[in-house]
Structures are given as structure tokens and as C-alpha cells.
Fold:
Amino acid sequence: MKIELCLLAAASAVAAVAAQGNGVLPMNNDRDAVIKVFEENVYGVRPKFDGFVPKAEIVQVERIAEVGAVRKTVAINTMTPLGEATFKATAYFPEGKGAVPVFVMPGFHQSIREFDLAWKGKMSRWPVDLVLSNGFGTVTFDYNDVLKDDAHVLDGIERAPNAWGAISTWALAVSRVADWLETEPLADKSRLAVVGLSRLGKTTLWAGATDTRFAMVCPTCSGLFGARMTTRNLGGETIDQITAKFPHWFTPQCRTKWCGKDWELPFDQHWLLGAVAPRLLAVGSAEDDWWACPSAEFCSWECSRGRFQELKCIGNTTYHVRHGGHGLTPVDWEEYIDFAKKHGWAERTTP
Ligand code: GTR
Structure:
């Protein structure tokens, strides 16, 4: 689908709502209620972790002269439905800049390897050199180190109908990275962003909606149960398909209650996008990513703007659709970096 067509389809969906007053669910501006609805029905409710002691241990600090950076490797612990897990986070900070804004990216193993191999990061989903050259830091971790992305990973445990799933678990790990960054002298904790692709774009949105320490949230090609409006899907993934193939991502009742009811859901993802307001929201789509349905991602973003308008911060939300297919590319990163800069992130907050 070409960009113009996506936007046309989305614009007509929005126009249909305006004209008929039906179709798309009206915006829900009650943030707490919105989070509860999505906990119960989609991502699951996290248990209380009695006795959990948070730890973030710096295991290595290196100077990486090629990109003028300090690389820190950190071991961070977190909770999962299977118990405690420790994962390794890899962070790059520009040298000699003091505390800088940081983009946190829940990532695929490949992201770290690609950057190490390609060095200049050109082909990477994680273009570290681009981020560094703009004066920002970035950190990633392999989501599989937190909880294995396997449909059977939770088979051995009894799950309540609203039990938390893998997306919520990975999102908690993103928050654990924020816990560490709050203590890290090279990070400006008032300027933390979260960015992720696809299943990790869904994770990004859920982490960013629930954890208000993230001042900017960038779900990319996030599709169903990411930025995309479920009730406006034009031929992309359905609830039946996603919950059959990836039951571990969601709360069990996401399938038992909502399978086959895509167009009748009493909640929708524009509510969750609105839950990011008044913080910065940057949604990214790709024109050929039909499985994620970019027109419904746009429609959802468009419909969430009411919340930003209400909070008098309409400039805090942006959307882009780029050429090409499913992915997180330097073009997307440039959009996010530019948006951050437009909001003063390149200016120093610390002496
Ligand atoms: C697909 C899934 C999408 C998206 C994608 C990905 O198979 O159906 O919702 O999450 O995987 O993460 O690459």
C-alpha cells in the first residue's frame, strides 16, 4: 500500500467518525481507567513482587574511540512469570558530554550484533553512531534474555484469566532499565525515551503508557495491540491470528474474550496512545507493512490527538509513515531524534 493510499484510508475512517459519530470508539481520557482496561484484557496484571530486591551492577566500562563513546555493560535483575531473571544491557554515552538524554530500546539479539559487526551501524536497527552524533545516549538489551519469546514458555504455570504475559514482562524490564538510568551520572533522567519495533513496539507502547518516567515514547511498526486501531483493521493481523500464534504475549482472556470480536471491542489502542499525553509521542509506520496496517496506525494516532488537545500540548505528538516495509531504520531514528530536538532535548539540563 502506498503512503497516499494509507493516509487516504485513514483520513476517510476519521471523516466517517466525524460525520456519523460512530464507528471509532470515542476517546477515553481517564488514564487510570485506560491502563486498567488494557491490563485486564490485553497485557495482564502484574503481581506484587514481595521480597524482590532491585539490582543493577555495572560489569564493564570501556572507551570506544571509533564512535567517541563510553560503553557500559550492566547486569540488571527483574521479575518474570517464571521468577527472577538477570539480563545484560549495553549502553553507549557520548564522551565528555555529561548527562545526556537516552533512548532505551528493548531489542532483538541481532541489534547488538549488527552494531558490533557493522561498527558504523549503517544497516542497523540500532544506529548507535547516529544517536551519539546527535548528543544522545542509547541502551538496548536482548528481550529473550528476560523471558524467552516462545509460544510454550508459560505452559508449565497456571495462569489466571488476567495474568501477565510476555509483553508486560518485557515492558517491566524496560522500566528496570529506567531504574538503573535514574542512578547513572551519564544519563539525563528527565529525558528518557523508549523506542522499539514490532512486538517490541507493542512492548514500547505498554512500557511508555504505564511508566511516566519515559518522557518520549516511539512505537514503530507496532501493529495490532501496538499503535494500531483494532477496530479499523484493513486486511492486517487479527486477534485470532495473533493470540493463536503468540498466546504467551497476552493475558489468557485476550483470546477467550475477544477472539473474532476485532470490530466490536469496547476499548481501542487510541486510548493507550492518549495515555502517553502530555509526554512526547512519536508513532512510526511503514507503507508496505500491510500486516501491521499503517492506515489503522494512523487512524489510531489521529484519534488520540484529542487527549493532547485537551491537555493543551498538541505539539507533543507526531506521526510518520516512511517508504518500505516492516522495520526500524535510521530514517525512523532520524524522525525521533528530530522530534526530541524540536522539544529541546539537545539543550543541556545539567551544567
Ligand atoms: C508478527 C506478529 C506481529 C508483529 C511481528 C514482529 O508475526 O504477528 O504482530 O509483532 O511478528 O514482532 O515481528
